[in-house]
Amino acid sequence: MSLINSSGFMEIAIIAHDGKKADLIEFLIKNEAVLHNEKIRLIGTGTTGGKAEAAGFKTQRMLSGPLGGDAQIAGRVAEGITKMVFFFKDPLSSHPHEADINMLIRVCDVHNVPLATNEATAQLLLDAIAQQL
Ligand SMILES: O=C(CO)COP(=O)(O)O
User: Does residue 47 line the site of ligand 1, with CB under 6 A?
Assistant: First the structure.
């Protein structure tokens, strides 16, 4: 399983529900030494991506999650462009686009793409890839 896509980058998707956005930004800042590596490309759902950009992380923004951003990222996972997903889900809230959320998770499993749905898992994944950069 290669984590580098055909463009030569490790594209990581960053997504967070509203209740987890602050945690994700804090996670990015804590790991900025790895995330600013020239081989890493960040993409994100609309609002999450905007907050990451505001925190100093160059991020290609997709549509907002509820407007189809999760589906766009699922497409990139299916096409082998996005190689890892950090999705800080809020398990205590319901979401109108639950079908998109579940579809993204399913597509990651179909294509064997590493998916972290919480910070502990995201940290383990990032620590692992730091060795490969
Ligand atoms: O709802 C989301 C993921 O399901 C996140 O979308 P935003 O980053 O646009 O808020």
Answer: yes
Q: Residue 123's pLDDT is what?
A: 98
pLDDT-flagged residues of the chain (< 50): none
C-alpha of residue 59 to centroid of ligand 1, in Å: 14
Domain boundaries along the sequence of the chain = 15-131
What single-letter DSSP state applies at residue 8? S
Whether ipTM > 0.95 holds is yes
Nearest to 15 by CA among 98, 90, 87: 87
For the domain 15-131, what is the CATH code?
3.40.50.1380
**Which two structure tokens, joined as six digits, stand for 7?**
């463009």
Nearest CA to 83 among 131, 12, 31?
Answer: 12
66 CA → ligand 1 middle, Å: 6
Indicate which residue's Cα is closest to atom 4 of ligand 1.
65
Helix/strand/coil (H/E/C) assignment for every residue in 66-122: HHCHHHHHHHHHHCCCEEEEEEECCCCCCCCCHHHHHHHHHHHHHCCCCEECCHHHH
pTM for the structure as a whole: 0.96
